[in-house]
Amino acid sequence: MSGIPDRLQAVENAIVAACREAGRAPGSVQLLAVSKTFGPDAVLAAVEAGQHAFGENYVQEGVDKIAALAGRGLAWHFIGPIQSNKTRPIAGHFDWVHTVEREKIAVRLSEQRPEALGPLNVCVQVNISGEASKSGAAPGEVAALAEAVTRLPNLRLRGLMAIPEPVEDFAAQRAAFAAVREIFETLRGRFGPDFDTLSMGMSADLRAAILEGATIVRVGSAIFGSRTYDK
């Protein structure tokens, strides 16, 4: 755990540098620390270094960590694929969901969200690269799905999320993120001031994502180190 503060600082420095390059305020980009497969102790080390927003891909693992770290004022984001039989614990424990790709899932999240928690913040996931192996709505389906989310009483539509196909070419990285941003900007006036979030960019393409307007970047191993296992 001793390396987490230094790695977290390095990622924050990279975000600041990319924001300056883009002519943006550093505070316009939120770092989401992806803590999947790392235990509460690792999360706590990041918390003590100043990090308060965490992303989880696996439902039960995330729920267990949320319980273990309750009362610390943390924000928990679900960023993994959503199975229909997992919507209830997601709706009951998380503050954000980035991966809504079907109206059926959105309806279940709304129906199962405890009213005492307030609306669940939701991003529609866009399959911008058209990969068969990737989750997300096709670009042409995003507007209708986003509209459906706005009609659900216990959800708050916040924006779009995307995981483009990994490429090393920087121009190609920017092009994929620019395509997501164009969809976002097309919809922004339609959905009002709450529609303010572009969740895109990870360790390998963080700079390109910020240059193209990301407001949340999702970074895991660059903060917590190499994962010893995956599910």
Automatic annotation (TrEMBL):
UniProt keyword Plastid present: no
Residues where N6-(pyridoxal phosphate)lysine is found: K36
InterPro entries referenced in this protein's UniProt entry, alphabetically: Ala_racemase_N, PLP-binding_barrel, PyrdxlP_homeostasis
Matching SUPFAM superfamilies: PLP-binding barrel
Cofactor: pyridoxal 5'-phosphate
Gene Ontology terms, MF aspect: pyridoxal phosphate binding
The keyword Transit peptide appears for this protein: no
Keywords, comma-separated and alphabetical: Pyridoxal phosphate
Pfam family, one: Ala_racemase_N
Domain Alanine racemase N-terminal: 24-227
HAMAP family in the record: PLP_homeostasis
Functional note: Pyridoxal 5'-phosphate (PLP)-binding protein, which is involved in PLP homeostasis.
Family the entry assigns: Belongs to the pyridoxal phosphate-binding protein YggS/PROSC family.
Protein's recorded name: Pyridoxal phosphate homeostasis protein
Organism: Pseudoduganella dura
Species lineage: Bacteria, Pseudomonadati, Pseudomonadota, Betaproteobacteria, Burkholderiales
